[in-house]
Amino acid sequence: MTTPVLEARDVTMRFGGLTAVRSVDFTVNSGEIVGLIGPNGAGKTTFFNCLTGLYIPTEGTVAYQGKVLPPKPHLVTQAGIARTFQNIRLFANMTVLENVLVGRHTRTKEGLWSALLRGPGFRKAEKESEAKAMELLEFVGLAAKRDHLARNLPYGEQRKLEIARALASEPGLLLLDEPTAGMNPQETRATEELVFAIRDKGIAVLVIEHDMRFIFNLCDRVAVLVQGEKLVEGTSDVVQADERVVAAYLGEPFEGDPGEAEAAEVEAAEAAAEAQSADAESAEADSTTSTTKGETQ
Ligand SMILES: Nc1ncnc2c1ncn2[C@@H]1O[C@H](COP(=O)(O)OP(=O)(O)O)[C@@H](O)[C@H]1O
Ligand SMILES: [Mg+2]
């Protein structure tokens, strides 16, 4: 059964004269892993920012489980959407465990006074939080590094820690912005498994990624964003075979800008070479060959 978890309707985001996201309708259903792909600058991260309350869309609405979300990041997290960032955002000087505990704070009910007085209620909650955080560290494979400082982790592990921290808010939907950027092929494979395992916990996943193998292996559905607009949406097979997607990624090999630019370049080079050899000939005729020496390359 497919029930929508996330429904974005007609989302537009403008920055001054630039329309980074244009009238995008987008749905993620429960149990789904959905991919969002598109060339650099297509508006993918901006769209994530609109979904998570970091930006207030110029137009349109975002609803989570049928309720329109207030455009405030902490309220969006509280509602049940968690995310990771394209540029990792961890507390570098906190330990691995502490970073995950920070992610849990939206789900702990203990108030400020309880925390200050460190009464029995607080200590019990703290114990529970720690146990939950350790479970998540086990889940992503970082339990052994619980006391390491986040900044000392290798890059791939920092990305995993970000995922653990996002999961600590007990989301129903997880948004991942380029989770395998900077990873080697083994780490990328492991991340694939991790995302499947997250989905199997009942968390829907929306993932931005440039690694097409990763996306097409993983996703039930893929949407392609080009210049802020949703160009194509469908199953991996459908999207992979779509000529417009190939064109958007590789440029148009037979016509259009890249081809024309290339042809113009070749033409200019030929004209230059011709002019040069004509120069050389007339120079030779003038018997001043020394002036053209070395210019033939
Ligand atoms: N805060 C901002 N202010 C102005 N322009 C922005 C801002 N954020 C993104 N943009 C612009 O919006 C476009 C889409 O960027 P982005 O969403 O980062 O693309 P992607 O994640 O697909 O690479 C780019 O042209 C970018 O320069
Ligand atoms: Mg981006």
Automatic annotation (TrEMBL):
GO terms for cellular component: plasma membrane. Residues 252-297 are annotated as: Disordered. InterPro entries: AAA+_ATPase, ABC_AA/LPS_Transport, ABC_transporter-like_ATP-bd, BCA_ABC_TP_C, P-loop_NTPase. Residues 269-297 have a biased composition (Low complexity). One of its GO terms (biological process) is D-alanine transmembrane transport. Residues 254-268 have a biased composition (Acidic residues). The keyword Nucleotide-binding applies. Keywords: ATP-binding, Nucleotide-binding, Transport. One of its GO terms (molecular function) is ATP binding. The keyword Nucleotide-binding applies. Residues 6-252 form the ABC transporter domain. Coiled coil: none annotated. Gene3D superfamilies: P-loop containing nucleotide triphosphate hydrolases (3.40.50.300). SUPFAM superfamilies: P-loop containing nucleoside triphosphate hydrolases. This is ABC transporter ATP-binding protein. It comes from Streptomyces griseochromogenes.
